[in-house]
Design goal:
With about 625 residues, the chain is mostly beta strands. It is built from 7 helices and 40 strands. Strand 18 and strand 19 form a beta hairpin. About 45% of the residues are buried.
Length: about 625
């Protein structure tokens, strides 16, 4: 279904001869087809692929569901539509996720485009007594004084189209014998290239005249001499408004739809009591919503050692809490009503004990929380365990406690974990199956309310001290496992790697091992990892890319078929030594969040977070 709406903007009412703007709306999978009459060309004004209301292209579920996202904005739509349509008489653009990205999953979307049909190369007499020659696509604008050129026989604000009027204008320039240097340059510009090129792609939006010809120069943030658009661009840098020394804002991050959560060792309840900051997206900007601190927080609790968000629920680990003994740990669950977050429940395991470090890592999907307690001593010191809690109404209760059947002292089972639907992958980076601290990952599957081991994973080329499973991520039938102390592939000691596994039926097999093409010793590539669909983001927080030690970086990989390839390397535009950009990260839809927890913007090691937006449809 396609809608056409006519609108008139203030600008168009002031400029005689410009047609009213046209807005076209196409439902998902349909086409918008802007068109202009002969002698006119398209100029795109606004465009968005997503959803900003319930009624347009809506079905019964869209109209009534509380989960309908009406703040669904694609930051890349305008660029793409301009590239396809600007300067043409007709064009056609299809409203698809492949073209613009899945900006709001599980929501019907639509593409709306506002454009106008403009004359090419009009002559305009301005109110300040000058004449302007301007390509209406906005690529070039030049002015001249009417005292030099004489009366152009046009009223203030009137537009004369190109062709004869433009010829007359240029003829008057040619007759002037004592033109100033400025006017001579204007004539040279007009004579050398009567019609400057339309710079494509839109990243070449810096049209420049080099004295003899017009050239398309790449705008800031675009790549190469051909102005190739990068897949991801930095959208915003976030720092805590009350940030201070040693608060390491950004040590852990997570994102779900239009909400980002960021941890901090804030001192509101005492030194390293901890806190979590919540930010929400409005249009293209992220704004502060709330800071969460525990009402019973104390010094050393480290609320925010880990964090996860799903919908209107946040789960926060506080592994330094002492409710069951020193560093026994706890988990806080907060829920949002409107724009306010409030505590739903504090979870402490009934069998908790000193140094269990319950809450060191958490994850959340729907009404299930998984919590790591890698210091648990059920099978020896630091054998570790994982607790699974489920919600009924507003109450959370223990469903299952998981320990490794072959657990041993210092395995650190539960140091990291990731949960998706009915599958949990648990890291045990201290496991010794391939040598001391070679590491392993355990995959558990839930049937009904029963959890059972599906498979134990080891790196095919695992070796001593690789720390395989120092980070893990799962999405559907794909698991990514980081091994940040791996020395393989001639990249140097502790250069790091990531292993990708896929499931067929109930069996997991290694699909590919990934290393950074520019990897080097002590980059620690592989901590952390975040996975959505066919896109994987890998941190290398000790990378030295900005000619500074441990400035940090993050790598984006995409999968085509069964092959993974590097898409882009992300670094902070203002990165410095010791920032550790990439120590935390998360991906959701067309947004990547990267923490630099020892950035110094608000004081030494105060920390920051960078948000990246996709410039085109990512792999899905």
């Amino acid at each position: 279904m396609i809608f056409i709406i006519l609108t008139t903007t203030a600008l168009m009412t002031l400029i005689k001869g410009t047609e009213a703007a046209v807005m076209i709306v196409a439902c998902e999978e349909e086409y918008v087809s802007p068109e202009c009459v002969s002698g006119k060309i398209i100029r795109v004004l606004e465009a968005n692929y997503g959803r900003t209301d319930r009624t347009t292209c809506g079905d019964e579920n869209t109209l009534t569901s509380s989960s309908t996202n009406t703040s669904c904005i694609s930051t890349t739509t305008l660029r793409i539509v301009k590239q396809e349509c600007n300067g043409k008489q007709t064009c056609s653009v299809r409203a698809t996720n492949d073209a613009f990205g899945d900006t709001c999953s599980y929501n019907l979307k639509y593409l709306n485009v506002s454009y106008e049909c403009v004359n090419d190369w009009p002559v305009l007499k301005l109110t300040d007594g000058t004449v302007e020659v301007k390509n209406m696509l906005g690529e070039v604008s030049v002015n001249a004084n009417l005292n030099v050129y004489g009366n152009m026989n046009v009223s203030n604000g009137d537009i004369l189209t190109g062709g004869s009027s433009l010829t007359e204008f240029r003829a008057r320039i040619a007759k002037i014998e004592s033109a100033s240097e400025t006017i001579s340059k204007l004539q040279a510009q007009l004579d050398s290239v009567p019609r400057p090129p339309i710079c494509m792609p839109p990243g070449a939006d810096s049209l420049q005249f080099n004295g003899t010809s017009w050239i398309c120069a790449c705008a800031e943030g675009w790549l190469g001499t051909s102005c190739t658009i990068p897949p991801w661009s930095e959208q915003q840098k976030i720092v805590a408004s009350d940030g201070a020394d040693d608060e390491i804002f950004g040590q852990f991050v997570d994102i779900d739809k239009d909400t980002i959560v960021v941890t901090s060792r804030a001192d509101d309840k005492g030194i390293q009591s901890g806190g979590v900051y919540v930010y929400v997206r409005s249009g293209l900007s992220w704004t502060f919503e709330q800071k969460i601190v525990a009402s019973d927080g104390e010094a050393g609790d480290r609320l925010g050692q880990s964090v996860a968000i799903n919908g209107d629920t946040i789960v926060i680990g506080a592994y330094g809490d002492d409710d069951k003994g020193s560093n026994s740990g706890s988990v806080y669950v907060y829920v949002r009503l409107g724009t306010t977050w409030s505590l739903q429940q504090k979870i402490v395991p009934s069998d908790g004990g000193a140094s269990d470090l319950f809450g060191h890592f958490v994850d959340l999907d729907g009404d299930t929380i998984v919590v790591g307690a890698y210091g648990d001593q059920d099978q020896g010191n630091f054998t570790g365990s994982v607790y699974v809690y489920v919600r009924s109404g507003t109450a959370w209760s223990l469903q299952h406690k998981i320990v490794a059947d072959d657990g041993f002292a210092n395995d650190y089972f539960g140091y990291t974990l990731s949960f998706n639907r009915d599958t949990i992958v648990v890291g045990a980076y201290g496991d010794d199956d391939k040598g001391t601290s070679s590491g392993s990952a355990y995959v558990y599957f839930r049937s009904g309310s029963t959890w059972s081991l599906q498979q134990k994973l080891n790196a095919s080329d695992g070796a001593e001290n690789d720390a395989f499973s120092i980070s893990v991520a799962i999405d559907g039938d794909t698991i990514a496992v980081g091994s940040f102390l791996d020395d393989d592939d001639d990249k140097g000691i502790n250069s790091g790697s990531v292993y990708v596994y896929v499931r067929s039926g109930t069996t997991w097999s290694e699909e590919q091992k990934l290393v950074a093409s520019d990897g080097a010793a002590n980059d620690l590539f592989g901590y952390p990892v975040s996975l959505v669909g066919n896109t994987l983001v890998v941190g290398a927080y000790s990378d030295d890319d900005n000619d500074a030690s441990a400035s940090g970086s993050a790598y984006v990989f995409v999968r085509s078929g069964s092959a993974w390839s590097a898409q882009q390397k992300l670094t902070a535009t203002d990165g410095e030594a010791g920032d550790r950009f990439g120590y935390s990260l998360a991906i959701e839809g067309d947004t990547i969040v990267v923490g630099a927890y020892t950035d110094d913007d608000k004081g030494t090691d105060s920390g920051s977070v960078y948000v990246y937006a996709a410039n085109h449809s990512r792999a899905t």
